[in-house]
Description:
single chain, alpha/beta, 8-stranded mixed beta sheet, 5-stranded antiparallel beta sheet, 25 strands
Amino acid sequence: MTLLLSALQSPTGPAARREAVRFGALSLTYGELAAASTALAARIADAGRVAVWATPTPETVIAVVAALRAGVPTVPLNPRTGEAELAHILADSEPTAVLAGPDDELPPALEKLRRVTVDARAASEAPEEYGPGEAPAEAPALIVYTSGTTGPPKGAVLPRRAIAASLDALEEAWGWTGDDVLVHALPLFHVHGLILGVLGPLRRGGTLRHLGKFSTEGVARELGSGGTMLFGVPTMYHRLAEVLDAPASDGERDAPTGDAERDELAGALAGARLLVSGSAALPVHDHERIAAATGRRVIERYGMTETLMNTGIRADGVPRPGTVGPPLAGVELRLVEEDGTVLEGPEAVGEIQVRGPNLFTGYLNRPDATAAAHTADGWFRTGDVGTVDEDGYVTIVGRKATDLIKSGGYKIGAGEIENVLLGHPGVREAAVTGEEDPDLGERVVAWVVAADPDSPPPAEELADHVADQLAPHKRPRTVHFLDALPRNDLGKIMKRSLHAR
Length: 501
């Protein structure tokens, strides 16, 4: 296996002057990032384990790269984490130091740790002597905390082997090269934004342009000035689709600013090599709106904190809205019934289980949870439910705990109902859950944000719309109207909080 970040080992000449990352007006070349991370690696070589205050800044990139170079496991911290959860993460992972930017204000929970200040503005290409060499493939690189359905978050230990395997599989599937310029605005404390969005381009020798905060103007600007790839979550693509779908003005003269913004965005997206959505399912309605305006299809991939990337639509493959593509190179995938029976055929609906070099090594300090998450023969139980068609394309029905509804003897996936609801002109956002029912076992419940909050469509109309498009047993029995759906930092709808409302 090649070095995890080989492009940063000893860049010289043109390679050293190539832009590695850019955050707004501040950018770092490969030479500057190599020098800054090498110097920092020497300062933390004996730390044992470090926390990184993972703001969307070049300081976070320097900190994570330095820890990788030093062979020190890193715990990325979400700056928005609440006091109780932060205290649990720190007690569980026991970092000895916290790496943070010079202007970061850290909460009291971090006061007991040694603070190591990282300042990207002081970066230079001055050579450094420190070089500990590459850590073993199984050595832990990152410990990323993921919230479960019960109990406090668990720390998924991600070895260097898993990161390299996933990024190399994406290189093969997407034709990802050092010439690519990746644009995104994802948080840097999670797999999507940090591993794929930062380590991905650095492993290839390419460039990252981070927007800091997502905006459609920022996407248009960066893609229109050389960006080749865009990573985003469904809420971001929904906002892009809204701009692209805005009605045009009448006539070419005196066109409003909105027309120019839409045209600029459409041109920028059309010129990108790859538009990738992840972390949650992208509604088919938004797929179609973006494709109609740009001629460019958004492709999806499927992964988890514990498994990194499992499947993905290939750059040279056939985009199929609603699917996440076939398994990536090296990944085995199967569907399993609740009793452990392995299912086959395009009509089969079961829990997705995977195994391969992309998997984590376990949950920190939780051998019980690690064992429970795996079968006896080494398959990881994702908790996601899906189908696999004749061509191997995987469709995610939803989470086993929240998105698979068993009603009247039928297995119903929440995702397909949500897509149909989103196709109704009176619906802006939609989520579907199951609710206990004495007759059906569970009944289908829809949670809707109306396109016009002052005049929402009748509930019966929405139920009939679903029944007409899908089947009568999939019609929502109850429809709730909300001002907004609850979402986490990655744009995923937090369905467990819906019924509490």
